[in-house]
Amino acid sequence: MEKRPHALLLKYPGTNCDAETARALEATGFATTILPVSRLDRDHLEGVSLVVFSGGFSYGDYIMSGRVARLITEQRIASALEEFRDRGGYLLGICNGFQILTQMGLLPAGSLVHNTSGRFICRWAGLDKRSDAAPLSFLPDHFELPVAHAEGRFVTADPADAERYLAEGLAPLTYTDDINGSFAGIAGLQDKTGRVFGLMPHPERFLHRADHYDPDWDGDAQWGWGYHFFRSLHAAVSASSPVPCPA
Amino acid sequence: MTENHRTPHATLPAPPFYRHIPIAALDGDALLSLSRRMKLSLSREDMLQVQAIFTDWGREPTDVELEVIAQTWSEHCKHRIFGATITHTGPEGPETIRSLFKTFIKDMSERVFARKPGFVISAFHDNAGFIRLDDQRAVCLKVETHNHPSAIEPYAGANTGLGGVIRDILGAGRGAKPIGSLDVFCFGPPDVSQAGIRGEDVIHPLGIMRGVVRGVRDYGNRMGIPTVSGAIQFDDAYIYNPLVFCGTAGVIAIKDIPKEVLPGQLIIAVGGRTGRDGLKGATFSSAALDTDSHAEDQQAVQIGNPIEEKKAADFVLAARDAGLIGFITDCGAGGFSSACGEMLSEGGGEIILDNAPLKEPGLISWEVFISESQERMVLSAAPGHLEALQALADLYETELTVLGKADGSGILKVRHHGEMVCELDCGRLHDAPVRHLRGHFTPPTGLPPGGDLPCDPPADLRRIFSDFAVVSREPIIREYDHEVQGNTVLKPLAGASGDAPQDAAVLRIDGSHRLMAMTQALLPEWGKTDPKAMGRACVDECFRQLVAAGADPDRIALLDNFCVGNPEDPDTLGALVESVKGLSALAEAYGAPFVSGKDSFYNYFETDDGPVSIPLTVLISGMGIVEDASHVTGASLRRPDSVLCVLGKTSAAMGGSIFARTNSHPALQVADFDHVAALERYRRYHQAVTQGWILSAHDIGEGGLAVALAEMAFSGKGGIEVSLDSLPVEGTVGRAARLFAETPGRLILEVSPGNLDALTSHFAGTAFATIGRAAADPSRLCVDWGDERVLNEDLAELKSLWKNGLTPYY
What's the whole-model pTM score? Predict the structure, then answer.
């Protein structure tokens, strides 16, 4: 009998960070399954503790990023993800996955739009932990992760909403510097249950200390901050009661 | 003149979907004019041979057959200039070279394979050459050019250039996994005035650069393959013929490399549909460009859809792992005709064009068969595997179609609407007529070396750091996702500040403790004076950069890509011959075989004032095995108290250097170097790396020692205090050369003071010297010669020049 919590990674056409995300999850104690979305039905959520939306360009993201993925997912499993969350399940979205979760309305309202520079950016970003969140518990108040996105600017209909998310602990992760024009510098969001988390940076790309651009990086002798991100999530998922099977 | 075949079938496309072309009665002139009218790019001799073949068979060819032969024999597919017999007159006197490829690339590399049993697993016959990574795995690299399409439509041209080379990797062995890409561009200077460009519709270098970069970005990023390495050259001559090289590396289990089509296997197409986009790309890219190309040849440029390719890639890798693939190749130049030709030319088989899924109805036979529509792979599989393959295609949402079947007949048969539109005994097509060409090269004599030219070091250094050849490529590098897959250990920009230049990229390989380094070198400026020295220097620089980054010097393989003007011009061809001789001899001496290569000719543009040709451009790309993660060595200063050493001798020759070019100096001697001594130093350097003695190392390349020192200090970890007095030199070497010469074979090493004694004894008897140290004050670059402080510069100011040099243009 598998004792590790089970993470299900949904793979859309154009999802391309699923392999390294699965590797990071396995390294921190999860069992993983990568599921192409063509096969997705409600039964696949059985026995799953964490559903992961990995980075990439689902369906090319030629129209608003994450939108087609949302429509396809709803078509296949309707509200099963909300029910999964309500049963105590966790959802994580990284980069394109964050965009998909935002499109699905599973995170505080807002949109991820084109960076103010109008460009794709691949760089490392300083991040500040602004409130507690399941994947951040073992991380320091300030840390770094790589980012790689063209549409990472988080905006809300009313800029005050972004500030409110920050005040209410719904925006646990902000950029140290303004890299993309996000309102309130928001880099990551969680929902009110604390079980749905999305972020633009890529923790799976900083699993080992050797992944850092500076060979003398002194944060950890072996692991990168991404390892501690997934380790934190593993602790939270393991501590919560097992997710019952759907009816 | 033509005999039309109409059939009564109601659903046929109209007008006739194929026709016979009578050629038996035509003379040479008429054959040549037919070739031109059909845009076959076949010469008079080629057409006469085609005529002879069909006369033997007692019938006239169909248009499909002529198109297939034109694709098969095109320069793009057959590399007929590299296979030509060349009467060459060079410094060594007159000679006859029967195939540059066989003489200097293949035969040489096979001698190296024999010296290193087990290292090269396959070369020259598959889509890419494989070298051994460890007991179970092999890595490969392939580099292609997409020059003509990028000149006409930069975004789509570069987009599909990368898409195409990624498919090469997916079609290497029984499907390798793409793990990293490189891109190299040659553009006109971005600040050239539009008025200075001769030729209507020629796109300004800025438009070319922005389009090309975005094309690469949008394909590579969407495919999830990190673009980790690259280079850009700027020269007026590239205004009319920009060059776009796209390369991709892959990894595969050694057991999955052998591939074979067996009689009875199904021929299966996977991925995108076939349309009228990309018609005649192979023949189009085998001719020169002119103003009309911009208006007429748009059809030759394909449209890219990376998600289609991503789905096909996911399918291919899953099908390979399930053991369902017998043989696989990509649909590149020549489309189905090349892919099916490759698969069926030995054993034969039948293709039913009606089965091919089309983007639009009504394509006639030859269009279906040679269309270069993107994102298509062709594979062979046992009929019993079809169901499992279909299930995987459904899983990854890609389209799979059975096109035909291998039958062991030795004949390539193509049917459409029930009629045989092509029936060729491919055995007759293997040998295109051998071309006979003339080459001529007279090396310039009596050139001064230039090492004692007047020099104002602070001003020269600033000018070089502002030159397009040296300035940071950061604005472009940041648009490429260079970290997807999570294995980019040595990134294109790294060091403590995360933005300093590196010599090579190093990728971790999933499941192995070994890593792979990749980089490339090109020095077209050198070739203008001395193409042979350019060939040598490119091999040395590529090899040296790989070794600097931690690769084992005994486990490096190279790729050769040539971009050339008009091969019928003896001076152009003569320069090519000399460059090939230079790079071949050095690669053999270094034990670094070529495992793959490609050439692109006719890179010249017809203006009203005559042709404008590119300079001979040779790109040497390389991959090297890094034994352990602890060997990975960056090119950025790491300590404020370390010692700086130089390996290799500096000579006075400054031909081809940025110093010489930006000072508008006339032709100068191009540097030569002692490669035997250089290889010995690289081997000892690698031993020092394995001992853990090297903190960082940077190759001394474009811009020379002063530029390399400053680049190391761009990490912000320390300043530089060195003296030129102890610099190892060859002959009498003045100030300009000590600071700015680009002599091959040199590295700067950063070492802890505690390891200096061990390192000094380790390098005893070689050109090795301690030249100074890193300084606690990270703000100054100080260089002394004798009693004089020749440079005392603000590093922040230099870094700003370097870092922002391209920003206004991209």
Answer: 0.95
